[in-house]
User: What shape does this take?
Amino acid sequence: MNSLEIKTRFEELGPYYTKFNIQGEYYGGEVSYDQDTRPTQFFEWCKSYKRILELGSFEGASSFALANHEGVEQVLGLEGRDFNIRKAEFVKELLGVKNVEFKLQNLEKPNLIEFGHFDAVYCTGLLYHLSKPWTLLEQIYQVSNYLFIDTHYATQEEVAVDKYMGIFYQEYGYNDALSGLEEQSFWPSFKHLALMILDSGFKISKFIDVPNVNGSRAWLLCEK
Assistant: This one.
């Protein structure tokens, strides 16, 4: 496939958010994941990662970065939008990646057990898009011993959902690729994020508070 054919196909599948380097040329959106340090932190913290479950794989950029690391045998990306999976599958074909697979899954109503056990779960940019994030954490505990999280958290405790305190955040549904699938999400405060994690069965073994223009954000490693 030549560069014109590649560009045409990107436009047909798009719009893309992610910018991809294909054979030395960039295609797709405006945002490059080339300098994303989250996979690096994940591999530094997590010592078991042959089989990785990525939650909210979007257009596949993080999936390919994880799969490219030495020792990774399989990455399964679960994504709630079928059009994002089509975008990711096209890039996967262009890059010739063999150890990544994408599956459609609404992570507001997850069923992770059907996919088996994983050495580690990579969950970045997802929890703060969910209306009940603790339900996903409970399922993650059933399929892996290690969980890497990157998420926003609330700096105020304005509302209670179940027993957790935080804020509601506006989402825009299925057609907005950068939103959650429901009309609103729930951001717990850091205290109640930690409580959710502990309630699921995990313990927090490592933590970094990450400066972010869009609000308070943290990276965590959780272990059984």
